[in-house]
Fold this sequence. Notes:
Elements: H1 2-19, E1 21-25, H2 30-43, E2 48-52, H3 58-68, E3 73-77, H4 82-91, E4 95-98, H5 103-112, E5 116-118, H6 123-131, E6 136-139, H7 147-155, E7 162-165, H8 174-178, E8 186-188, H9 194-198, H10 202-222
Helix pairs in contact: 2-3, 2-10, 3-4
Amino acid sequence: METTTKNTNQNIKERLYNTGIIPVTTLYTPDADALPLCEALRRGGIDVIEITFRADGAEKAIAQIKKEFPDMLVGAGTVLSDKHLKLSEEAGADFIVTPGLDCKLVEHCKRKKLPIFPGCTTATEYQAAYAMELDTIKFFPAEQSGGVGKIKALSGPFPSFKVIPTGGVSLDNIESYVSCPSVLACGGSYMVAQKLIENKQWDKIEELCRWSVEKVKEARRNA
């Protein structure tokens, strides 16, 4: 059983790498927006989404998406507490994302064999994550914390980590991030911005997803 779980976790990371971009969104009206949003993402070539707990009802959106699109990877983001974690598990989240490094949440996820990507931006946090035997972390907030340059610098003493930069990632800089060997995928909100969702601009979201996927592919081809 443990081998199967490890393979499943590895497959999740492989799928995140293959997509290269993780749309990160907060849904204030999940009943109305969760499914049409995911349809737009899928048409644009992205089969992963992170739903944050910055608004109530995140677990409802996660459950709806997993029911309608069981093959889609759905992460729970901005997980800050045991309550958030429990709601995420019950909703069927495929992975957990936290803004910082919470040892208690990490240990819980490790026991449950549930992938967790905690936020780390310093050598001290990297070393703590290393001590907890993690191999994938979220670099947040990416741009404000030094961006690609700092990620490359930290990969020197910590070459085993794969990183998910999130915060300030855009169409203008995503190529510089994904061309970095230590980057697994980028978390981004620009293609799922609140105004786009509020105005039901599903076609525009699809278009931004297509552009993002193409930029990821091109950057990796040229790396």
